[in-house]
């Protein structure tokens, strides 16, 4: 089935909650298992400046979400952070690749961002492989970075640089 990517809309609220509510998605992201509808309603209908939310769709069904947040500080305006999840039953089927391609295109071709950064659990090997395919490199390891499933776990700090030539 073809995967398309589009801007997230407020009407996608329940579908996005479903993406982040799956056990594998909760395990692989920094989200809590019980996300409120109000939180997602605010994110989608009242976005902060520099916030971009996109969804991957298959047959009209939302199967993944990616959020890209441009830094607010003037000295970091060349930077954005991203986070994403793919619905449990769609992991490994191309939705993450489609979302990452769309995010990189947005960053490079439209926002002129020079640095994309993210954190990912060190044991989330499929996600690490995906990010590396898009030019992200591990810059370091955050030890005991997050509490997941009853224990502290490490996360990589990863970034993708597209530095402009020096004047």
Give an overview in words:
- The termini are far apart.
- 29% of the residues lie in helices and 37% in strands.
- It is α+β, with helices and mostly antiparallel strands and 167 residues long.
- Helix 1 crosses helix 3.
- Strand 3 and strand 4 form a beta hairpin.
- It has a domain of 114 residues: Aminopeptidase.
Shape: globular
Q: Report the β-strand fraction as a percent range.
A: 35-45%
Give the assembly state of these chains. single chain
* DSSP helix fraction: 25-40%
Please give the number of β-strands.
Answer: 7
What is the typical, i.e. mean, pLDDT? 91
Q: What is the gyration radius calculated from CA atoms?
A: 16 Å
Stated plainly, the CATH topology of the domain at 3-116 is called: Aminopeptidase
Q: Which consecutive residue ranges, at least 5 long each, have pLDDT under 50?
A: none
CATH superfamily of the domain at 3-116: Gcn5-related N-acetyltransferase (GNAT)
Q: Report the CATH C-level class of the domain at 3-116.
A: Alpha Beta
| Spatial ordering of strands, largest sheet | 1-2-3-4-5-7-6
User: How many separate helices?
Assistant: 5
CATH architecture type of the domain at 3-116: 3-Layer(aba) Sandwich
* Classification by helices and strands: alpha+beta
The largest sheet, given as strand count, sense and whether it forms a barrel, is: 7 strands, mixed
Order of helices and strands: EHHHEEEHEHEE
What is the terminal-to-terminal distance? 46 Å
Detail the topology: elements first, then pairings:
Blueprint: E1 3-7, H1 13-21, H2 23-28, H3 37-45, E2 51-58, E3 61-70, E4 79-86, H4 95-110, E5 115-121, H5 125-133, E6 137-148, E7 151-161
Parallel strand pairs: 4-5
Antiparallel strand pairs: 1-2, 2-3, 3-4, 5-7, 6-7
């Amino acid at each position: 089935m073809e995967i398309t990517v589009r801007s997230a809309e407020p009407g996608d609220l329940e579908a996005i909650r479903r993406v982040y509510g799956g056990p594998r998605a909760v395990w692989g992201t920094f989200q809590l298992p019980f996300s409120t509808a109000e939180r997602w309603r605010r994110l989608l209908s009242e976005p902060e400046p520099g916030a971009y939310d996109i969804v991957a769709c298959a047959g009209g069904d939302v199967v993944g979400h990616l959020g890209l947040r441009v830094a607010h500080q003037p000295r970091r305006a060349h930077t954005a952070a991203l986070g994403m999840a793919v619905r449990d039953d769609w992991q490994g089927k191309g939705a993450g690749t489609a979302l990452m391609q769309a995010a990189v295109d947005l960053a490079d071709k439209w926002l002129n961002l020079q640095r994309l950064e993210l954190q990912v659990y060190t044991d989330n090997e499929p996600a690490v492989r995906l990010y590396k395919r898009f030019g992200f490199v591990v810059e370091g390891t955050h030890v005991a970075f997050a509490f997941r499933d009853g224990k502290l776990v490490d996360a990589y700090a990863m970034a993708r640089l597209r530095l402009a030539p020096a004047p």
